[in-house]
Design a protein that fits this description.
Length: about 260
């Protein structure tokens, strides 16, 4: 009897055909859903849809892409519609997450982050960042730098400072400090191309992404980085070069 009870409580694994049928019903619900109720629906629909990419079934993956295409059209220009950041991050960092799930997750994590109360979430992204694929590290670090510039250019709250200090992985702290140094070295190019002195083209692109940073935006990020680095109480070795660069920066009068 005990075996029967244990067996009946085991999770039921859906076949590809059942998953495709479920996704088809979800697509119908999505199409009929009003914008006012869309955020609630996406909180469950989006993680389940993305997790379905782990299958090798072409039919299931095509259905997922159909749903995601519909989601993109609905939310792209409606930033008031939130996306389930916590659930997406949990799915992304799951031990059994496949590469294709991670690649799609990171896109929606980036979108979700833009719609959040971002100040408290940035430190969460730095923790264990050294374990992420290089390309995903760069995306996350740019997100964090954007948050730092928007939220901490003038000061950093004690509550948030504690969260940054709680990032205790040596490789995570080292990676973040290196990115901060590259950000401090970054300068806006008058020609709109090339790279800053002291940085390779790859390092400049790592800091700025697709679009070069503008003067005001760059200044806010540099000010924020100095506040966050100070709050993190990093060891002297990675901090000295960063402060040395800051002391010679064109914006040093603002620091």
């Amino acid at each position: 009897m005990a075996e029967s009870s244990s067996s009946s409580s085991s999770p039921v694994v859906k076949s590809d055909a059942e998953t495709e049928e479920l996704l088809d019903r979800m697509l119908t619900r999505l199409a009929l859903c009003d914008d006012s109720k869309l955020e609630t629906l996406l909180s469950k629909l989006l993680p389940l849809t993305l997790s379905s990419l782990s299958t090798n079934s072409t039919a299931v993956r095509n259905k997922v892409l159909e749903i995601l295409s519909h989601v993109n059209k609905r939310v792209k220009y409606q930033h008031e519609i939130g996306l389930p950041f916590q659930e997406l991050w949990k799915l992304y960092t799951a031990a059994n997450a496949t590469a294709i799930v991670k690649n799609f997750c990171i896109m929606y994590i980036e979108m979700a982050f833009e719609r959040l109360n971002i100040k408290n979430m940035a430190p969460v992204l730095i923790a264990n960042i050294s374990k992420l694929p290089l390309q995903h590290q760069e995306i996350i670090l740019r997100i964090v730098a954007k948050v730092i510039g928007e939220c901490h250019a003038s000061q950093i709250d004690d509550e948030v400072a504690v969260k940054y200090r709680s990032v205790n992985g040596s490789q995570d702290r080292e990676l973040f400090a290196e990115f901060c140094l590259h950000l401090m070295l970054y300068k806006q190019s008058s020609q709109g191309g090339g790279c800053s002195p002291g940085l390779s083209i790859a390092q400049s692109n790592r800091v700025a992404g697709k679009n070069p940073l503008k003067n005001e935006e760059l200044l806010m990020r540099k000010l924020g980085v100095l506040n966050v680095v100070d709050a993190m109480e990093l060891s002297p070795e990675p901090v000295y070069p960063l402060y040395l660069v800051a002391s010679a920066d064109r914006y040093r009068g603002s620091y």
